[in-house]
Each structure stands twice: as C-alpha cells, then as structure tokens.
C-alpha cells in the first residue's frame, strides 16, 4: 500500500532486526504505508542478504529472493552504533520515529546505551518492541535459538509427527506466528495509544511463549487430563476425516471433513457411503483401532485414482478436500491468480496484500540495497555535505555516495 491514504502513512519505524521474524513484521508495516528505516551495521549487515546454499541467485548473481521479499518497501541506513558520532545520529533518528523494533539478545541494546529507558527519556512517545526467542528474562533469556528450538520448547514440535517421528515444518511457524505476527497486535495497539496520549511503551515478544499461547488444542487436552499423543488426536492425523491420502500417481489428497456433513459428502464422493457413520462425532475415537481400519479402507480407495481424477470428482462437492500443492503450484494456483495476490518483480515473488482494506492498493516496492538510503536519511536529519563526508570517513556510517559527498 502506498500514498498518503495508506493506513500507516506518516508513521516512521526504525528496524534493527535481521533474518526473518523482525523483517517480516516490519514488511507488514511497510505494506501498510509506514516509512520503515532498516538499520544495518557497517560489516555483515542483515545475514539474510547472504544466500543459503540451496537458494539460487537472482538476475545477474545479485540478491536473495527471500531477503528481497521480506524487506520490500524499506529504506536502508548503514551505521556503526559503537561509534559515538553514530549513536548521536541514531538518537536524532529516534526523535523522528514512532516505533523501534529490535531482535538482539536481551541486554545488547542497553550495553550500547540504546535500551528502552535511554531512548524513552529522549522520546517518550516511542513504542519500543524487543523480539527474542525466550523473552527478556527467565533462565533461557540469553540462550540462542531458531524456529525448531522454539517449537520444541513450546510442545508444538512434539505434535507435528509423521510415522511417530517429529516432522520439521517447511514454514517457520515460531518465527512467523510466534514472532512477526505476535508482535504486530501489541505494537499497533501501543502505537494507537501513544498517538492519543503521547506516551509510548516497551513490548517484550518471546517467540517460544507466543507459540505456547497459540497451542490451544493441545493445551485443552492437557487441562482435560488427556495429554495429546500426535497422530492419535483429531487434528494430528488420528481421525480418518482429517488427514492426507496418497493417490495412484503418488500425489496427496488433503481431507478436512471435520464436520459430519462434510464427512458424509466425502464418503459419497469416494464411493464409500457405508462409512458415513464412521465419524468421530458418532463415537469413533481418533487413534482407535476402528479409526485405523476406516483409514485403511479410504486409503485403498484413494489409491485407485489419480490426483487429477479426484480433483475432478470433488470440484462439485462441498467436502473440504484439496490436492496438496507444491510451492510452485501454489504460486500459480487459480484461486491466488484470481485474487491477484502474487506479484512478480523480476524473479522475486511478492505475496500481498495479506489482508485487504478499502481505499488502499498494494505495490511491491523493491527491497533496499545495503546503505542505499544512508545519504538520503542523513540529509533528512539536517546533515550537510561536510558532516556527511565526515561521518563516512570516520566509519560512523556506510552506504552509497551521492553527488556532493566526496
């Protein structure tokens, strides 16, 4: 979304995050019209700029498609916050900002003299969000971690299994749900309050506990005295009505017929009407031997036809049945094409808007080059050519030079 009518037009966000959770959170803010200033150090910068081995180069060997996608629409300033002149410059930048989000380990910003107390003393209306794996305190606060660790600690990975072994999700659930998406509601609420009262606040987002807080189904079972066992519960593959079945051409059919009306339609569709009574709501317990026998009958039937044949069968049946698409197929799916949600910018796929709002349009603006907007932002802060040259020479900042900054 762009233009003065965008929901967050006029809001400035200072983004000190790297990799995935924080950049995705600020990507959403940029999509909503915020001016997101991406702060990168003068050395490695955001590690996501460095390609992982399995990702091919884009265009002429430059860029990482994931970095390009999650950093769209931002501006980049390279600054060395260990240099006093750079810290002074950073304080001036904070004075122009509404939101700051960082993802360092707890205590790092405070050691730099840039913790919440220091910045709030200068800018009381600032909303300051710290995004970390385990939160700002507690016995694990200082420990490193990644998505798999946060899922493990929160009990989520235990419930994602295939053939009784943990299955690592292909989407970074803790990073995105526990991090990026869990940060946005309190951040936006605090921003709204700050604009009304002039008082910002500190937000502590812990990815592991956000995952624990969203694990409703498993938590409810624990509270009921029946701790869940993956592949034996209703939503983990223990019920015939909610699982995947292999087709004759080795594709998968995803069946989500949780309600009995959908299950009845599914049984009719596959030609097994006698199984209508074999539903969890009628007493066939997920994970039971009876449920397993029903699964075997369905599995045998689904293997008789190809994915395309089953897709044709269920195209006119309201039974919550879909083909399991590959990522490439998903990008070309008729539903997403009809909604205009996939935007190509060169070789990079931008997906958006993730929610639609009236009087707004989505524009896939490019991600910034490292330090692309350093000079531009310094000028906005009132620095003249002499000061800008001094900042570059002293190593306080780095970036792309412009005419007049020799």
In short:
With 406 residues, this protein is of the alpha/beta class. It has helices at 21-31, 65-70, 84-95, 108-111, 116-122, 147-153, 173-197, 207-213, 216-223, 260-269, 289-302, 307-314, 327-331, 334-339, 374-380, 385-394; strands at 12-16, 35-40, 75-79, 99-102, 127-132, 161-162, 165-166, 202-206, 242-246, 252-256, 321-323, 342-345, 348-351, 397-398. The protein is 36% helix and 14% strand.
How does the helix and strand content classify structurally?
A: alpha/beta
Radius of gyration: 25 Å
Mean pLDDT figure: 93
Question: Approximately how much beta-strand content do the residues carry?
Answer: 5-15%
| CATH homologous superfamily heading of the largest domain | Crotonobetainyl-coa:carnitine coa-transferase, domain 1
């Amino acid at each position: 979304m762009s233009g003065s009518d965008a929901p967050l037009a006029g809001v400035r966000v200072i983004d000190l995050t790297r990799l995935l959770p924080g950049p995705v959170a600020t990507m959403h803010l940029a999509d909503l019209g915020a001016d997101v200033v991406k702060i990168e150090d003068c050395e490695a910068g955001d590690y996501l700029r460095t390609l992982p081995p399995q990702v091919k180069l884009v265009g002429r060997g430059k860029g990482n498609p994931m970095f390009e996608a999650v950093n769209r629409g931002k501006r980049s300033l390279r600054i060395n916050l260990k240099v006093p002149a750079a810290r002074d410059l950073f304080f001036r930048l904070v004075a122009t900002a509404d939101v700051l989000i960082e993802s360092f380990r707890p205590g790092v910003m405070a050691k730099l003299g840039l913790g919440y107390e220091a910045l709030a003393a200068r800018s009381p209306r600032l909303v300051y969000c710290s995004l970390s794996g385990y939160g700002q305190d507690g016995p694990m606060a200082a420990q490193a971690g990644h998505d798999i660790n946060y899922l493990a600690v929160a009990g989520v990975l235990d419930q994602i299994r295939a053939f009784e072994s943990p299955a690592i999700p292909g989407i970074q659930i803790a990073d995105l749900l526990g991090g990026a998406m869990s940060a946005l509601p309190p951040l936006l609420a605090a921003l709204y309050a700050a604009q009304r009262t002039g008082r910002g606040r500190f937000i502590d987002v812990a990815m592991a506990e956000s995952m624990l807080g969203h694990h409703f189904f498993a938590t409810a079972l624990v509270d009921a005295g029946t701790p869940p066992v993956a592949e034996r519960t209703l939503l983990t593959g223990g019920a015939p009505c909610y699982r995947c079945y292999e087709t004759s051409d080795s594709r998968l059919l995803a069946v989500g017929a949780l309600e009995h009306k959908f299950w009845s339609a599914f049984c009719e569709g596959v030609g097994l009407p006698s199984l209508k009574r074999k539903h969890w709501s009628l007493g066939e317990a997920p994970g039971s031997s009876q449920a397993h026998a029903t699964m075997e009958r369905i599995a045998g039937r689904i293997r008789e036809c190809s994915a395309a044949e089953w897709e044709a069968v269920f195209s006119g049946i309201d039974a919550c049945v879909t083909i399991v698409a590959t990522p490439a197929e998903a990008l070309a799916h008729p539903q997403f094409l009809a909604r205009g949600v996939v935007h190509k910018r060169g070789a990079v796929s931008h997906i958006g808007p993730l929610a639609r709002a009236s009087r707004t349009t989505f524009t896939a603006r490019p991600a910034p080059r490292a330090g692309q907007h350093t000079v531009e932002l310094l000028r906005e802060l009132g620095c003249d050519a002499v000061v800008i040259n001094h900042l570059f020479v002293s190593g306080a900042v780095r970036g792309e030079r412009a005419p007049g900054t020799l």
